[in-house]
Specification:
The structure is a single chain. The termini are far apart. Strands 1, 2, 3, 4, 5, 6, 7, 8 and 9 form a 9-stranded antiparallel beta sheet that branches. About 20% of the residues are buried. The longest helix has 21 residues. The chain is globular. The chain is built from 5 helices and 9 strands, in the order αββββαβααββββα. The protein is of the alpha+beta class.
């Protein structure tokens, strides 16, 4: 008689754990920015350009913006500073379809939970091209940036199974912009 009680208890425990953790896999409804591609090079004069993708599928580009706010310690930036950066962006004509954006953004939580390979030096004076995703913390009104992939003088990548797929998707968007 004890075996069924143990099995039932185990099943209930697993169900509770799985449904209790499920909330962590959903992005905040208040999260505005999902992704960023950014290129920086100091070697041949200052070059800094990139784009953001917001929760509505808008692609917001920037080119050598003045007084840019970079994430601080632990790759965290306040919502206010990030919104200041967005005010320096130009809305590109391309809008990511909702179903495509939803399909890709569902990987953010898993990418954020994964480790990144060590940086490997592969060149010099090429700058740094990074693909990042964000998670929003409603309590502190901050965004945390998570590296998906880095190319340039140094390379490294997120070890999540879907990180390459997301990076290629972002690269295609950058190629479409024809400025990267």
């Amino acid at each position: 008689m004890r075996v069924p009680v143990v099995k039932i208890s185990l099943i209930l425990f697993l169900a509770l754990v799985l449904t209790g953790c499920r909330k962590n896999y959903i992005l905040s409804d208040k999260q505005v920015i999902l992704f960023q591609m950014e290129y920086i090079n100091y070697a041949w004069g200052y070059q800094h350009h990139g784009y953001f993708i917001d929760n509505e599928g808008n692609v917001l580009t920037y080119e050598n913006p003045e007084e840019w706010n970079f994430p601080g310690e632990n790759q965290i930036i306040s919502q206010n500073l990030l919104f200041e950066n967005l005010s320096k962006c130009t809305k590109y004509e391309r809008i990511i379809p909702h179903d495509e954006l939803e399909k890709v953004s569902k990987h953010i939580v898993n990418i954020a939970a994964s480790k990144v390979t060590a940086q490997k030096n592969v060149g010099a004076d090429m700058g740094s091209l990074t693909y990042n995703c964000f998670q929003f913390d409603e309590g502190s009104l901050t965004y945390k940036s998570y590296l998906i992939r880095m190319e340039g003088d140094y390379t490294c990548e997120n070890l999540n199974l879907f990180s390459r797929k997301v990076a290629l998707w972002m690269k295609d968007i950058g190629d479409d912009l024809r400025q990267f």
